[in-house]
Amino acid sequence: MTERDGPEDDLLLVECTLAGDTEDAEEAMQDTFVKAFRHIGQFRRESRFTTWLTRIAVNEALQKRQARKNTVSLDEVAEAEVKVFPHRSHQWHEDPEKLFGKQEVRMMVEDAIRALPPIYRETFVLRDVEGLRAEEAAEILGITLPAIKSRLLRARLLMREALAARLEDTPALPKRILITAGRMRDMIAIKLMKAMGQ
Asked: With CB atoms counted within 10 Å of each terminal CB, which end of the chain scores lower, N or C?
């Protein structure tokens, strides 16, 4: 994924993210425009044209992914459910771009997006990458508004967890030594209190 210039690039980003494979995404992109051309008469002006076109793109990408992977693993969803809440407690670096170059930050984010389970990745891309309104994303994915909100929250939490490992500010060695010494002191005090019967 690279910097985007126009609507075609936006659709290609959706296709790549959802199809999971560049060749499938390019093929899905071609199929999207062919279907849009053939069915332009079916476009109802109830929604924006870009929403209608994105819906076709999402369907094409999902069909390509489904053709490659005939079944959807329930383990992915169950695994995602377990990892919904962040577990890290260290602060992130003030400015990740000072630590990493812009291209490296972009690649970290793209890798984190690709690592999301498909149901969360679809929602995250449509809402946070493409900037669609929740109603538009729900219409495109064919799910309810509360489902979009729930999936988006989980996707954001998973993204935060994935990026935290790379962007958090780990304490310096002297600080880690002090923290460890404090914990050891507490453990010794507890053992002494138990030994004395308190």
From this structure: C
Domain borders along the chain are: 7-171, 172-198
Average pLDDT, the chain: 75
User: What is the C-alpha separation between 198 and 191, in angstroms, rounded?
Assistant: 10
Condensed to tens digits (0 to 9), the pLDDT of residues 154-183 reads: 999 999 988 887 776 555 666 667 777 778
Among the listed residues 137, 116, 94, 100, the one whose alpha carbon sits nearest the alpha carbon of residue 17: 116
pLDDT at 140 over 80: yes
Tokens 């389970």 belong to which residue?
Answer: 117
- Measure the CA–CA gap between 109 and 166, rounded to whole angstroms: 10
> CA angle, 87 as apex, 109 and 167 as ends, to 5°?
35
Single-letter amino acid, residue 18: L
